[in-house]
Amino acid sequence: MASVLSSLRYLLADFIGDDDAAPPFLPDGLPEGATSVVSEGIHRLIDYQGPSYAQLYVDRVRRFVGQPGVDDAMLGEIARLMAVRMSYQDPIRIAQLKLAEFETGAGTPRVRPADEIAKFRLDELIGALPKAVAEPMLDALEWVGWTHKPVSIRFSTRSRWGIRRLKIEAGLRRWRLFSVRYVKERAWVERWLHMIGRSLVKQPKAAAAMVQTADIIDGYGDAYRQGLADWHAIIDGLAKPTFDGVLPLADVAAAVAEARAAALPDPRQAALKRTIAEIRTRALSAGTDAAAG
Fold it and tell me: Does the model's pTM come out above 0.85?
């Protein structure tokens, strides 16, 4: 509930204007070993989106403070990986980082900044727009078959126009939380945290592996989509059915590690799906043998 209220406060503040909320405090009871990681996450997300968004991060971290089975190292990893995923890479973020790079090197004019060319999918670019605008455009793209069309964008600080364009793109951050992409990212983070929580109850030894699955997803474009699809395949095929009591998998951590090793940059996920099916078959066979014995 606290995270929902934080998000609603941000949306209201952002609709009115700039997010002028006070920076959030560290969660009460936060162990000293995780303090620097959470503090860094707060600063990162203030820069990415604003203080209220950083408060949502703090509320999410707070869920695991003092929770049985969560030591300082695990809490630090949850906080670190969550900050990374909450600052996902979209064109707005790349513009922000490029501007920051330029401003940092402004005092050394001999250093000529290099351009960055990022290749996105067309639906990824449209998905960064507010939902009311993006959804009809995405429907039209799907109708003509252009949803996955690659688009290259140049991010440059070599000219005044390039810098001005970056500032315009970075300024779009105020509308980010109204976007189609944000809705999906929010749902993913919540599901990831939910799986960690379920693991702590059902298979505590697998909780660390659940935490680390966040790094399956990274970047943008095809690599991002591949990682997201692989993550859902592993969770839906192995972790969730085990926690639901449907799949008698004795060691979720080992199974996830085996599946991750089979994940290749293949949109069809042939090797990954085959490996997941083999793990499931072994688990069901072992469960049948144990019941018969």
Answer: yes
